Amino acid sequence: MKIDGKRILVGVTGGVAAYKTLDVIRCLTREGASCQVVMTRSAAMLIRPESFEAITGRRAAVDLWESDRDFRPAEAFGDAAKPIHIDLAQKADLFLITPATANVIAKMAAGIADDLLTTAYLAADCPVLAAPAMNCFMWEHPTVKRNAERIAADGVRIIPPGTGDLACGYSGPGRVAEPAEQVEAVIETLSGADSNDLAGRRLVVTAGRTEEPIDPVRVLTNRSSGRMGVAIARAARRRGADVTLVAGALSVEPPGGVDVVEARTVEAMASAVRSAAKGCDVLIMAAAVGDFRPKKTSAKKRKREGDFILELEPTEDILRSVGENRQSIGVLVGFALETENLEQNGRRKL
Ligand SMILES: Cc1cc2nc3c(=O)[nH]c(=O)nc-3n(C[C@H](O)[C@H](O)[C@H](O)COP(=O)(O)O)c2cc1C
Is 0.70 surpassed by the pTM of this model? Predict the structure, then answer.
């Protein structure tokens, strides 16, 4: 296994998603890693250290001064002769902070080390990953954005939060990344997948679903989340490629560091792809492009008065038209979604 025997210091801060860290640790342990938890006092108000101790088999370190005076890092993977914050940090192969509160991100950005977790952060010279989680207004606050950008520039890999219903009752960006995504980021970091082998290459990736307006409020669309195209764009970016993401409607956040061109309708997507793909090395068309659109779009919201027959017309087959004029594109990748005769239909499209 890629992370077999690796020592992961898991930092837990005072976010409501702290309970999800149990799952992250379970998955990391399943991959063969050994986990040691360091928590803030706020985190310990939300979830008891004993919960982590039960699944790691090690005491969760909380405090620099008081309750952990009798904590000896030798119980974990350390050297009892060194101060706990130095020892925990220096012996770790990777430090994953999950969930990362707005507060801890600010402290990391400023170099404030007033508790065990933040002191260990400054003492760590291993890769550091942070999975922010907070209310959407907090995540979008300019101060938080600035601090997150700051720590990313300092080399911390941010595992971006997802969008959806939040514990506070609001809906928006701020949900901690899924445990599987966090584990994937850890594995990638530890296995050195963050190489630069695509440096100098230009990739264009399409992702998400198209939306064709029926009237000013309704659209004809499909159930694509955009997750796959976004994952491809993120992986290419991490490998050093210069990436343009042509995005329809997405249910996931686009990755940082890529140029995002929004294109909601098939027509907009076709024109965005044509201009972005000129001379690119690779074009990967993972977007779910609608095959039909309403023949007419009503300028006013249609009332619920009697039957409504919506006349549709076919949209442009972007993959086909780009494929027929692909001289300037190195590699072209398309996808086929079928409900029957999968291979046969896929081959016909190819
Ligand atoms: C119930 C509850 C849930 C909270 N959830 C979050 C959260 O998800 N994200 C966040 O940034 N702060 C959250 N906070 C606020 C933090 O706990 C607070 O800013 C604290 O000072 C963070 O300390 P720490 O970063 O040292 O753990 C929450 C507070 C409470 C009482």
Answer: no
Tell me 301's DSSP state. Answer: P
**Is-catalytic flag, 126?**
no
Q: What is the DSSP string of 107-153?
A: HHHHT---SHHHHHHHH--S-EEEEE---HHHHTSHHHHHHHHHHHH
- Ligand 1 atom with the smallest distance to the CA of 105 is 25
Q: Looking at ligand 1, which residue's alpha carbon is closest to its atom 17?
A: 14
Q: What is the pLDDT of residues 11-39, one digit of tens each?
A: 999 999 999 999 999 999 999 999 999 99
pLDDT tens, position by position, 227-278: 999 999 988 987 889 999 999 999 988 877 789 999 999 999 999 999 999 9
Domains of the chain (ranges, CATH numbers): 7-190 (3.40.50.1950), 202-349 (3.40.50.10300)
- Angstrom CA distances, 338 to 288, 341, 344, 348, stand at 12, 7, 10, 12
